Amino acid sequence: MYYGEKGIVGLVKPTYRPGSMESFIKLMPEGVGFIPSHVGIRAGNEKEFQEALAVAEKKVAKLAERGADVVMIMGAPPAMVRGHGADRAIAAELTKKYGVPVLIATIAQVEAFRALGIKKLVGITYFQDDMNRRFAKFLEDDGFEVAAMKGIEVPFQDAGKLSQEAIYDFAKKTFLEHGPADGIYMLGAGWHNLPIIEALERDLNTNVVSSIPAQVWATKKQMNLREPLKGYGRLLAEMP
Q1: Is the model's pTM score more than 0.85?
Q2: Beta-bridge partner residues of 11
Q3: Which end of the chain is less packed: N or C, by CB atoms within 10 Å?
């Protein structure tokens, strides 16, 4: 089997920090090829998020030119700050313009909630209150009940340094305080949370939707690659 035999995924990553792209590639089946690109977000502020999708469009054009079969625009915040419906409009426009299916992280995550039967959720992030209110409104406008959208205290650029224990404890505490709910939403791909998804689902008897597994799930569905993957929560284990 060679890289690209099962298709080529173009990835548009919002930041340059390591972690999320490696995780995405690790969770995809063998035989899929990848062409990475980056938007270059550094501060994680409103201005950067507003500009990010315009930069992403140029990256999509290049990835289509280079033979990507599907493009995933990673990172939920840039679409969320634009408000409800912006992500689907942009994905449809880029798909039509460049002739390859274009997926956006927010669309993948919302579809993952619906696939798992999540109507009411508790969200955790590494952003602060004003941004979290925007994220919650985006989901509420899509018909979800957001019991909480809480940010852990950490500088944006240091999210990747959070320990798994700290993320687990924060997720559990927030869920127990604001539940009952159908699931936990771990917003953002900058923290290393893959190893705790199954533990949270088991210990709290709930569903967990995290950024990278949701994007992997949506990409596999788009590519008709349905093989399940255990160890990272129900979404990838059951491929609903």
Answers
A1: yes
A2: 36, 72
A3: N
Inter-residue long-range contacts of 228-235, CB under 8 Å, 24+ positions, other chains counted: 229/27, 231/198, 232/27, 232/194, 232/197, 232/198, 233/197, 233/198, 233/201, 233/207, 233/208, 234/116, 234/201, 234/207, 234/208, 235/112, 235/115, 235/116, 235/207, 235/209
Per residue in 59-89, pLDDT tens? 999 999 999 999 999 988 888 988 999 999 9
pLDDT in tens, 161-197: 999 999 999 999 999 999 899 999 999 999 999 999 9
Q: Which residue, among 44, 45, 47, 57, has the nearest Cα to 16 in the 3D structure?
A: 44
Sheet holding 70-73, edge to edge: 32-41, 7-15, 70-73, 102-104
**Cα–Cα distance measured from residue 13 to residue 147, given in angstroms and rounded to the nearest whole number:** 29
